[in-house]
Amino acid sequence: MSKHYSVGLDFGTNSVRALVVDVSNGREIGTGVWNYVRGTDGVILSRDPNLARQHPAEYVRGTERSLRQALADAKRNHRGFSPPQVVGLGVDTTGSTPLPLDKAGKPLAFQKDFAKDNDALAWLWKDHTSVVEAGEITSLARQIRPGYLAKCGGVYSSEWYFSKMLHCARTNRKVFDASYLWLEIADWIPAMLTGTEDPSKLSVGVCAAGHKAMYSQQWGGYPDAEFLGRLDPRLAERCSPMPSRAKSVDQAVGGLTRDWAKRTGLMEGIPVAVGAFDAHLGAIGAGISTETLVKIIGTSTCDITIVPRKFPLKDIPGLCGIVDGSVLPDYFGLEAGQSAVGDIFNWFVNYIQPRGAKDSHASLSASARKLRAGESGLLALDWNNGNRTILVDQKLAGMLVGQTLYTTPAEIYRALIEATAFGALTIINRLEEYGVHIGQVVNCGGIAEKNPLVMQIYADITGRPMRVSRSAQTCALGAAIAGAVVAGKQAGGHANFEEAQRAMTGLKPRAYEPDRSAHDVYKELYGLYRTLHDAFGTKDWNGNLHHVMKQLIDIRDRVRRG
Amino acid sequence: MSKHYSVGLDFGTNSVRALVVDVSNGREIGTGVWNYVRGTDGVILSRDPNLARQHPAEYVRGTERSLRQALADAKRNHRGFSPPQVVGLGVDTTGSTPLPLDKAGKPLAFQKDFAKDNDALAWLWKDHTSVVEAGEITSLARQIRPGYLAKCGGVYSSEWYFSKMLHCARTNRKVFDASYLWLEIADWIPAMLTGTEDPSKLSVGVCAAGHKAMYSQQWGGYPDAEFLGRLDPRLAERCSPMPSRAKSVDQAVGGLTRDWAKRTGLMEGIPVAVGAFDAHLGAIGAGISTETLVKIIGTSTCDITIVPRKFPLKDIPGLCGIVDGSVLPDYFGLEAGQSAVGDIFNWFVNYIQPRGAKDSHASLSASARKLRAGESGLLALDWNNGNRTILVDQKLAGMLVGQTLYTTPAEIYRALIEATAFGALTIINRLEEYGVHIGQVVNCGGIAEKNPLVMQIYADITGRPMRVSRSAQTCALGAAIAGAVVAGKQAGGHANFEEAQRAMTGLKPRAYEPDRSAHDVYKELYGLYRTLHDAFGTKDWNGNLHHVMKQLIDIRDRVRRG
Q1: How far apart are CA B220 and CA B235, in angstroms?
Q2: How far apart are the first and last CA of chain B?
Q3: pLDDT tens digit string along A193-232?
Q4: What residues of A are in contact with residue B126 (Cβ under 8 Å)?
Q5: Nearest Cα to Cα of residue A186 among A475, A389, A496
Q6: Of B340, B403, B543, Cβ closest to residue A405
Q7: B143 touches chain A (CB under 8 A)
Q8: Is residue A121's pLDDT more than 60?
Q9: Cα separation, A285 vs A10, whole angstroms
């Protein structure tokens, strides 16, 4: 029987990755990575440190190069593989990364007139030029459309779709007026692959629309024209061509064009799934199911879980997003996140502890592993880059308490790991307070794979087993799974996500089980973390902190006595 | 006209220093230092990490060696100097460092029976074996003699005289029962030099008695027998041979014995001043006067000021001690202190930033000097070793708030310096709240002499000029001044301390003046420091800290914009 494969295309901040996956068992048989060439590692910068753009030509070229590499790699590695065995294709991207398009759905950046205009490029997720506009949107929504904010944590971010559009409207009339609509690259790339860029044929994904553009069926789609018009009448105009109904990743936007088939060797017409954000397809690649939290741990984290649509889910304060169908169809996708995790460890190693050795993380982890919970007397807050969930507040900072004259770098390093774990537990607790039970956690990313100390501390602090996703490329794998599902069973793909995930995803065998006695100590420490969290992070806390240092010292002395 | 000289003997934790000083101008013409030989750098340790003792034979041998060295050094350096030109001698020591003595005033440690018993040695100031007993004394005093505590910050310390005696009474009956009385080495060494050890001839200094042994003329001397008896009847017995009236350093305990004259070449009978603690005579050597705070900055600090006896001085909560005559006769001596200053900078350099280079302090200071007040966004508490003034609480710890992903070691180093300066300001403010005005600060010690950044930050934060003492050996100089005063004018010394200080002390020419704009920023930061200080350090604070990080970020952004 002939094998079938699907391809996932994962558009990151600095590169695009193509992954060829065996739909019957999830084996990843070919990989291609194309690093973007324009700007600094693919990111176009300017004097304004907040600006971060990307040229859409990178997506076109990157798709071709990474796909051809991956297919060649698969042929090399896997006897009998040939590109026509690929039955479907999925796409995930960074986001919110909107791109201004003309009336034909082509990027303005491809026009000569705008060739040198940074505002005609894709506005990368990490572009922070739109802080003022984000404040304006939040403030107007609070006044007249509070429901819009309830699904996105109560604050509309400068990283998101309408903030960026509005900033362009305010600061670059030429680009804004020439634009007909703005699409997330998660939508534009699948359209480009299937020749459906024309607004009349266009599909948009509910993941990007719901999480970043205040889209919800609850109010009939995108924000209404009155609301957008109050911000800027042209904003309402630019939104009006958008499809009234966004789709989830079980649907195809179309079939691969003849041109793309020629350029890659894939079959013309194979279905391309609706695009979604990397973390959301990553969650699928990590085997997400109800009561499982998928943590994609990198410089920051994205935490995803799902809840059946029939569940009586309320708005959850402080959660970045709750979107019907944003991960899997028929489920609410719930997104949370920590603004810095790996970045905090990297800061400590690169800025505070530069030892000249490349293995600083390893050597600090080795020393930190010998410490017991509570024995350093330290407690940290993980806010060096603000707090995304549950406080949704960038204007916060890191904190370390409990230093003595003998505190060591390994103790601080461990305290920083613990702080991120306390942050993770705070997210889990918030979900559970609203009835969303989290039984296990599946972790993805380099830290989860390479640092058992981090995983053990996460298990000990959250009191839940930590698992690690089998695939090291969960986002691309998730995209490939979407490709397999839109191909359908008859074409050699899968009937639905449940079946596809069962066949194509898995966990590494090692489970990090919570240590009971460490967990007991951490329960006490978490009480203190939560006190500091609320005291420094919320307006309504009122109290005294006289006990904090004393309790840290008591715990330390008790643990040291053994 | 023949020159006259005096000698100061400064008994430190690890060594004794003798200093020969020209009484007419304060020139230091000869120095001798003798490092103690027993134990670890002169400190006898045991398995119990709290134990720190010293053998009294060190004081006898150290006196002879350092004196002979200093006199030889003076002869070498200074043509025409001869030891008979020395007209008086003063002594300062660490403390509280009590020593158990027999009925003749000789150390028990000199008896064969006790030769190997650590409890028969001098109990060094930093011996912390008596924590339980200190608690017991504090608690009893709170119940029945609250007045006793009001002069020593509200808490009787484990470092102090009666705690140590009581611990010995409880744990080593043999030594305690064999002891007839316990003397501070500040009292015993002058007695030993003048042959006045016999309890009938004995003098005790008001500095040690007042600051460490709850002595006050207000209640007729040492604590009453009922109070001591409630702790242990034998404690009252051991206290009964103590002189009923303690003396200040303008009085002599006697004349140098023939034996000591022979051993050193000094004249027999020259007066030896009443002994006092190093910081108190150091304050004299630094030129203390009213409205001047002398800060002796080392690993920790001792802060001393004086107030005329006629001033209607109230008890000042949180101050380590207020003792009539403890620094200068006719003035209240006020002692405060910070539990760690240099120790915090050393911790950061030695533990957190070990760069292999010896000049880490210099290189961090050089980078930190380029920063402006507030621009790091950091704020620290200086409690890595607890807080001596004004909280009087060992059970506190360090804290750093405001870290981002880009915080540098120099920023942290500067924040730690600032934290100690905020701690210094808190002490000054407490004094001023009780009417004790502090117009200028005179600093002593290696950090003050070598680190202009620290001095400038202290000036900018306290809003007061910082001066540095001219002498690098202020404690020994202060002791020599006491020697010159007890010698008297006719013998070639001085009539009183005012005259002696005018002649023998001085300041380095450089004055660190507060920078107005830095001071304004630091006023805001001090408000936040004080909020954290009160929130974590006091029981009665009640409030919210939501503004703290935000204000730090606002100040940072404002300063960076310039």
Answers
A1: 18
A2: 62
A3: 999 999 999 999 999 999 999 999 999 999 999 999 999 9
A4: none
A5: A475
A6: B340
A7: no
A8: yes
A9: 12
A398 in reach of chain B (CB within 8 A):
yes
- pLDDT at residue A369 above 80? yes
Do A243 and A322 form a contact (C-beta atoms < 8 A)? Answer: no
Report residue B417 CA to chain centroid gap: 20
| Tokens representing residue A154 in the block | 């109560």
Q: What is the mean pLDDT of residues B322-329?
A: 95
Place of tokens 């039970």: A437
Is B45 in the A-facing interface, judged by CB distances under 8 Å? no
Residue B5: other Cβ atoms inside 10 A: 29
Whether the predicted pLDDT of B50 surpasses 90? no
d(CA A286, CA B86) in angstroms, rounded, equals 86
CB spacing of A405 vs B538 below 8 angstroms? no
Biggest CA-to-CA distance, chain A: 73
User: What's the rounded mean pLDDT across residues B434-441?
Assistant: 96
pLDDT confidence of residue A348? 95
| Among the listed residues B297, B301, B391, the one whose alpha carbon sits nearest the alpha carbon of residue B338 | B301
Q: Which residues contact B220 (CB under 8 A, 6 or more apart)?
A: B244
| Local structure of B283: helix, strand or coil | helix
* CB atoms B542 and A543 under 8 Å: yes
Of B397, B404, B535, the CB nearest to A404: B397
**Does residue B173 register a pLDDT over 60?**
yes
Burial of B305 (0-12, 13-18, 19+ CB in 10 A): buried
Q: Where are the alpha helices (DSSP H) in A327-472?
A: 342-347, 360-369, 409-433, 446-450, 452-462
Instruction: Identify the burial level of B298 via C-beta atoms within 10 angstroms of its C-beta, where 0-12 means exposed, 13-18 middle and 19 or more buried.
Output: middle
Decide if A395 and B549 are in contact by the 8 Å CB cutoff: yes
Token digits of residue B109 = 């440690």
Q: Which residue of B has its CA nearest to A396?
A: B549
- Of the candidates B301, B347, B410, B337, the residue with the CA atom closest to the CA atom of residue B153: B337
DSSP H or E segment with residue B476: helix B474-487
- Span A375-396, average pLDDT: 94
Please count the other Cβ atoms lying within 10 Å of the Cβ belonging to residue A110: 15
- Cβ distance B535 to A545 less than 8 Å, yes or no, reads yes
CA distance A434 to chain B (A): 25
Per the document, the length of chain A is 562
The helix or strand, by DSSP H or E, that contains position A399, with its residue range, turns out to be: strand A398-403
What contacts A557, CB < 8 A, 6 or more positions away?
none
Percent of chain B at pLDDT exceeding 70: 99
- Environment class of residue B40 by beta-carbon count within 10 Å: exposed (0-12), middle (13-18) or buried (19+)? exposed
β pairing state of A379-381 and A331-338: unpaired
What is the nearest CA distance from A491 to chain B, expressed in angstroms? Answer: 49
Query: Whole-prediction pTM value?
Result: 0.92
pLDDT for res B355: 64
Taking only the tens place, the pLDDT of each residue in A489-511 is: 999 999 999 999 999 999 999 99
Contact B348/B413 with Cβ under 8 angstroms?
Answer: yes
At A55, give phi and psi (nearest 5°).
Answer: -85, 130
Residue A311 sits at the vertex; the CA angle it makes with A308 and A315, to the nearest 5 degrees, is 105
Report the run of H or E that residue A531 belongs to, with start and end.
helix A516-537
C-alpha span between B70 and B75 (Å, rounded):
9
**Set of chain B residues whose Cβ sits within 8 Å of the Cβ of A383:** 549
CB of A546 closer than 8 Å to CB of B395: no
Nearest CA in chain B to A411: B352
Q: Under a CB-based contact definition with an 8 Å cutoff, are residues A64 and A44 in contact?
A: no
Interface test with B, best of A545, A550, A551, A557 (most B CBs within 10 A): A545
Judged against a pLDDT cut of 80, whether residue A1 lies above it is answered with no
